[in-house]
Please model this.
Amino acid sequence: MAHHRISVTVNGSVESVDVPSNMTLLTMLREKLGLTGTKNGCTAGECGACTVFLNDEPVNSCLVLAVECDGAEVRTVESLARKGKLDPVQQSVIDHNAVQCGFCTPGVLISARALLDRNPDPSEEEIRDALVGNLCRCTGYVRILDAVKDAAQVGAASETGGSR
Amino acid sequence: MREAHPGLPDFDYVRPASLEEASRFLAENPQSARPFMGGTDTFVRLRDGFWKETRYLVDVKNLDGRAEITFDPRNGLTVGAAVNMNQVVADPQVRAHYPLLAQAAHRVASYQLRTRATLIGNLCNASPAGDTLGACLLFGGILRVHGVEGFRDQPLAGFFQGPGRTALQPGDIATSIRFPLPVPGSVGHYEKLGRNVLSDLAIVGVTALGHPDSSTASGHRFHLALASVGPVPVILRDLLTQAPLTPEALDEAAGRAMEACHPIDDVRGSARYRKFMVRNLSRRALNRVWEGLQSGHCCE
Ligand SMILES: Cc1cc2nc3c(=O)[nH]c(=O)nc-3n(C[C@H](O)[C@H](O)[C@H](O)COP(=O)(O)OP(=O)(O)OC[C@H]3O[C@@H](n4cnc5c(N)ncnc54)[C@H](O)[C@@H]3O)c2cc1C
Ligand code: FES
Ligand code: FES
Model:
């Protein structure tokens, strides 16, 4: 199988990685770069645990080939806190106890951050719509919804002015 | 260590420099090479053990700047092949002139999946459950296709030949889709039944489009496209033209939709259930369109 040498910016640092054709972005992040915050729940685009930013838009990293990311910018959950300060969405999820096992949380955080970047004042319907692709099997969704609602009110865009 | 989930099988990722090169490569490897855009269908099929003969995945989304949506008041709307579903949903021209297309695209999966999923991929995948097939058919979509012989136009009418089967030949790459201007005053609506309210493949999908027509007894003309109830979308054209529009006439048209489809039993629903849902959703969709036509608003 063909291998490819790609250059990809991950959480601000440029990485040069050797990837086989069939390696997903998810596997590259976890197994080549040791960024295990991004989770593998289904490898089929269903659960959203693998959600990361690819060129400022959220994607299911299990459905992106690593080789397709040559020259791209990727941001994972590890990038959300800046200088020891949590992103407002992270803080709000903690404040609302919107985490139990935490497996879905990295994906939820990315989807929520992406929503607030494109729409700092979402309605409940818009929050539900943005989180449709993030399954949580233990906390239940009400706390997660409340956390995102509050994060929108408190922080609007994060300290960095969001991702753009 | 054994993986908890199967990975992708072995293949070579191929990124041609031009459409000519891509078409040639695909035509020379008809069994083993496959074009892909967002890959949301392709990777899942590969991972699930379908398409065992695939050796090459040919990335065709980076060729010739096809990531644009353009609108021309004379020729209509053109959506480039690499345009993703979220772009279709958000595009002001789509929302202004073809809101039904935005509504259908919005019903595909989740936001993050729609960052990758494309309209063209939805069409070329030719799943009878595809959410956007009905809107694209009712708007009279015409694909622009590049093959070994060069470019040609491929109307969507006649394009779908069965689940996963289309009129595309080895070497063919869809590069864009064009929609002529809708009939003035057109109103559309998409009703989707999934296992949950948002995100999930359609158990039944009903797309309805209606427009004023002074030559008919009703003063209108309605069309329906039914998803997930046959090997290809079921189209019913020119409904509700013969008599003035009444709630009873809409009911009867919904009954005709039910009679026109021959669904199968599968894990997502029985044939009998699907038929009843076609009637109910058709009634609802036709009523929504009728309301929109009366109020002069496109519904969404
Ligand atoms: C979790 C999940 C949920 C989903 N939910 C929905 C849903 O709710 N509704 C729905 O309709 N679909 C759904 N899908 C299916 C899929 O996301 C859509 O069909 C999507 O639009 C496919 O686009 P793509 O660009 O990813 O296609 P790809 O996977 O890139 O391609 C799909 C097919 O088209 C062919 N193809 C792609 N591009 C071209 C081209 N330019 N020329 C010729 N052939 C081409 C490929 O060879 C392949 O056979 C879902 C998929 C997943 C994984
Ligand atoms: S691991 Fe990617 S969506 Fe579940
Ligand atoms: S907290 Fe366990 S899956 Fe969401």
